[in-house]
C-alpha cells in the first residue's frame, strides 16, 4: 500500500502571511535588509540625514519640526513610491497592501504549502 501525501495550504502556519513565508524573518529579525520595504528605508535614511543637518545648523527641536513638516509632502511625493507596486487604497502608510510592519511581503519567499518548518498558528 502506498501512502498518498497531500500538500496542505500554508494558511494554518504561523509563518504564513499573504502567500509568503516569514520563517527566516522570525528566526533572525532584521538580518535580511532586502526584506524591508524600500520606501520606508529611503524615507528613514532621508529623515536621519535631515536630523543630522538640523543638529549641525543648531536648530531647536521645534524649528526642525516645522522645517520637516514643510518639506515632508515634497519628500514623500518624490521618495514615497514603490516601483514594484502602484499605490493602492489601503488608507495606511505607505499605501501598499504588500507591507507588513516594515517588511515587503513581495521580497519574502513564496509559501507553497506545508514545509518542514510548519508551526500551527496559536489562534488556529
Can you put this structure into words, describing what you see?
The protein is mostly helical. The relative contact order is 0.26. The longest helix has 20 residues, at 38-57. It has helices at residues 23-27, 38-57, 61-79; strands spanning 16-17, 20-21, 99-100, 103-104. α2 (38-57) runs antiparallel to α3 (61-79).
Chart the SSEs and their pairings.
Blueprint (H helix, E strand, L loop, with lengths): L15 E2 L2 E2 L1 H5 L10 H20 L3 H19 L19 E2 L2 E2 L20
Strand content: 5-15%
Distance between the termini: 33 Å
The total of helices stands at 3
Give a short account of the largest sheet. 2 strands, antiparallel
Helix content: 25-40%
Number of DSSP strands?
4
Give the mean pLDDT.
83
What is the CA-based Rg, rounded? 20 Å
What structural class do helix, strand and pairing data support? mainly alpha
Main sheet: strand order:
1-2
